[in-house]
Amino acid sequence: MVEVTSTQIATNRAALYRWFALAFFAPPTESDVLDMCHGKTQQLLTALAAAPGASLGVQAMGEVLTSSAPAKVASELGAAHAKLFYGAGGYDTAPPYRSFYVSDHAVLCQQATAEMERVLRQHRLRLQETVREPSDHLSIQLEVMAQLALRYAEAAQSGSDTLANLNAEQANFLDTQLLSWLPAFSRRVIQVDELGFHAGLASALQAVLEQDHAYLLEV
To answer: Taking the complete model, does pTM exceed 0.85, yes or no?
Structure first.
């Protein structure tokens, strides 16, 4: 059997987190839909379906992706994305911000946003100037996990003695930031997503986060 190194595992984890970050940040294009059906991303989804608890979510995504021509599917997913995450659905929305789910009155840009800004400074990370979202946006938090996983990969490659600390940072970020609100967000998306793609995406993400958290605690 081929041995998979800790560097490769961390690099693969970073790529998966980055893919989820992009998926929740912007709707897929026609090219993205084709790639999810027949390209490299289709291979990623096939592997993702094997993760404990993720198969039904991936299956739901696949049913939407193959329901019509790629251009039509992309158009429908764009409308669904706007409804769910941009507020176009009125009350039937699922704001992708931690503040909405952990503040007393579901208000954005509260303590959770300030906490996330502190975490960014702590890890010496900065948002790109083109990003106009509060720092507790789901995609930003997922990108932070990708960056932390890449730092672990680089440290493992160089034989650094900081691996335990870097591993603990990832587990702590998952526990205190993402897993503190992702289950509520996932339930909300499943409740209001009529098309079903984003409900499957959120369900698969929750399964990945829970599995990854368990993995980080083990290693």
So the answer is: yes
